[in-house]
Structures are given as structure tokens and as C-alpha cells.
Design goal:
By secondary structure, this protein is mainly α. Helices cover 71% and strands 0% of the residues.
């Protein structure tokens, strides 16, 4: 086979997803390392991590030789790493991604680890919102009823 024919066949295989010069998870691994080094629970490094994961997922889905178990295990490692870094939101998202993406019986062990990881996290903190006007009015009612009750009691005991 001539050199130009080999190059053409190689390019065609790469375009078809049959061969890849670099593993599809390389960008994800770099993004994970960057996010860990940054030590932040949010921001551009975590956004880049999820973007790289989505790209990996999209690319890997078209590869015949790709084993999805490596993706599940990477998400579990990501969850554990961010749990140890004190970033429960990122850890929770990684564990939930395992549960969502791998419902097949072959991934029961990974799902069990994800559930165990979720159980080890503190419950998510709800967003605090100012009370609505209806809630504020209902909060006032017991106070006004208490005030009326106290006035009634004081009037009855006087005389």
C-alpha cells in the first residue's frame, strides 16, 4: 500500500469513527485534572469538565470499540473526588449521571456505588427565597390571634 493510500484510509477510518488518534476521553481527563487543581466547586473549570464529558459521550457513542463501563467508572471517580474536595453538588451530579445513563442490568454494580455515594452526601440545600405575600400574611395570623387571646384573657381576669 502506498503512503498516500495509507493516509487516505487512515483519514477515512478516523472520520468514520473506526480509529482514533487519541482516546475520546482525553479532553475529559484534562478537564477533570484542571477542575481538581482549581479546587473549586463551580465556575469555568467545572463547566469545562461537564462540556468535555458531553463531548466524550457524543464521540464515544459513535465508536464501535468503545466500552461504556469506562465512562461509568470515570463518573464514579469524579463523584468520589469531588465529594472528598467538599463539592457535594458536583459529586451529586456525577452520581446521578451514572444512575440516569446506565439503567441496564450490566451496570447494577456501578449504580449501587452511585447510590452509596449519594447516600453519603448531605442533602441538597434548598435555595432560600423570600416568603410570598400569602406566606407572610399566614405567618402574621398566629401572632394576631395570640394577641387577641391575650387581651381576652386579661379582660376576663380583671373582673
Amino acid at each position: 500500500m502506498t503512503r498516500s493510500l495509507k493516509a487516505t484510509v487512515g483519514a477515512a477510518l478516523i472520520m468514520a469513527g473506526c480509529a482514533s488518534p487519541v482516546p475520546p476521553d482525553t479532553a475529559y481527563q484534562r478537564a477533570l485534572e484542571t477542575a481538581i487543581e482549581a479546587g473549586r466547586c463551580d465556575g469555568p473549570t467545572v463547566d469545562a469538565l461537564w462540556s468535555a464529558y458531553n463531548s466524550w459521550y457524543a464521540t464515544a457513542a459513535s465508536l464501535a470499540y468503545y466500552h461504556r463501563s469506562s465512562e461509568a467508572e470515570a463518573l464514579l471517580r469524579q463523584g468520589e473526588t469531588f465529594r472528598l474536595l467538599g463539592c457535594p453538588t458536583v459529586a451529586r451530579a456525577a452520581y446521578e449521571q451514572v444512575l440516569q445513563r446506565f439503567p441496564e442490568p450490566d451496570y447494577a454494580e456501578q449504580r449501587a456505588y452511585a447510590l452509596q455515594g449519594l447516600a453519603g452526601l448531605a442533602p441538597p440545600v434548598p435555595l432560600l427565597r423570600p416568603p410570598s405575600s400569602a406566606a407572610a400574611r399566614s405567618a402574621e395570623r398566629p401572632v394576631s390571634l395570640l394577641t387577641i387571646s391575650m387581651l381576652t384573657i386579661s379582660m376576663l381576669t380583671r373582673g
